[in-house]
Write a structure and sequence with these properties.
This protein has 12 helices and 12 strands. The chain is α/β, with parallel strands linked by helices.
């Protein structure tokens, strides 16, 4: 199905994007060409959008997007919403679901979030849930100002739960394509979420703990740690019945060090910025999630558990503050 951007406003599908940061705002800018878009975002972004529109730059085009509506809560949405995208950090999923529970019961909800387990939370509130992954490099460069830096592959969308999700998925893929976003149907979105999370499980915490970009994690002194994280995670995935594209831990490690880390070498992941700013990270949806499932299945996960505890401790210490004195 193709959605024409010449549709009248009343004919266009209605999409709400909740927790719009870099991913959500960039998505709003593109989808505004094929849908009526409402966003829940920080006040600084909302004020700038109302004043002069959303500024977009990068591979998705350089332009100012007008007509995006900013909301403060469900009361600001129209009576009927077709799709709700949740792009907030996983630490805020439950709170957003509580706030928008009434709307979610009638809409198809799409999770485009890092980590594993968000869809399980969402499915307690929504009748139909679609899981998604996106491997595009987004950044916020100022209030309502985003840049799309690179695209490693198409957005992947797949049915997670709900009897109406399959029909909703077909229509949604048509809308996303009409907006000019590369997208494909995932035959197994659970496996897709785990496959994407492997990169986040292996490099994000190390970048956050040592204040280094992704490329630095290829250091020989870290490869052994990463290998243990991958082996533990593959054991947990096997117990969960999850089959990712790499048949063995060694096959994924070859892909990680040969493709993924070089592709993202200069990038600092979001967990690095969370630690830098003293914010809570998504560790409990990554290494912490692996460790919790390992305990449930009786699978030892000492490396994932250690990494999760280190990040939790670093979170509790708050943002770094330089001092004038140093121990010698």
């Amino acid at each position: 199905m193709r959605i024409s951007i010449e549709m009248t406003d009343s004919e266009r599908p209605v999409i709400a994007i909740l927790g719009a940061g870099a991913v959500g705002l960039s998505l709003a800018g593109k989808l505004a060409g094929a849908a009526r878009v409402y966003v829940l975002c920080r006040p600084a972004h909302a004020d700038a959008i109302r004043e002069r529109g959303l500024l977009m730059a990068g591979i998705w085009g350089d332009r100012t997007v007008e007509g995006i509506a900013c909301i403060a809560g469900p009361e600001d949405l129209p009576p009927s919403v077709d799709y709700i995208f949740i792009t907030a950090k996983g630490t805020g999923t439950a709170a957003i679901c509580e706030q928008f529970a009434g709307v979610m019961r009638e809409a198809t909800v799409v999770s485009l979030q890092n980590g594993i387990g968000n869809e399980e939370v969402i499915s307690r509130y929504a009748g139909s849930v679609i899981g998604g992954t996106v491997t595009t490099n987004f950044s916020v460069e100022g209030p309502a100002q985003v840049r799309v830096k690179s695209e490693s592959g198409p957005m992947m969308l797949g049915v997670w739960s709900g009897g109406d999700a399959a029909a909703g998925l077909d229509r949604l893929i048509g809308i996303v394509r009409a907006a000019g976003i590369p997208v494909e149907r995932s035959p197994d979105i659970r496996a897709g979420k785990w496959a994407k999370s492997l990169l986040n499980i292996t490099v994000n915490p190390l970048c956050a703990l040592f204040s280094v970009p992704v490329g630095a994690t290829a250091d020989d002194r870290l490869r052994g740690v990463i290998a243990h994280l991958v082996h533990e995670t593959f054991a947990v995935m096997a117990a969960e019945g999850v089959r990712v594209p790499w048949a063995t831990p060694e096959a994924y490690l070859a892909h990680l060090f040969g493709v993924q880390i070089p592709d993202f070498a200069a990038v600092y992941p979001s967990m690095y910025y969370d630690i830098k700013m003293g914010r809570k990270t998504e560790i409990d949806l990554l290494n912490g999630y692996v460790a919790a499932l390992g305990e449930r299945h009786g699978i030892p996960t000492p490396y994932n558990r250690c990494i999760a505890d280190l990040i939790r401790f670093r979170e509790s210490a708050g943002p770094a503050h330089p001092t004038d004195e140093a121990l010698s």
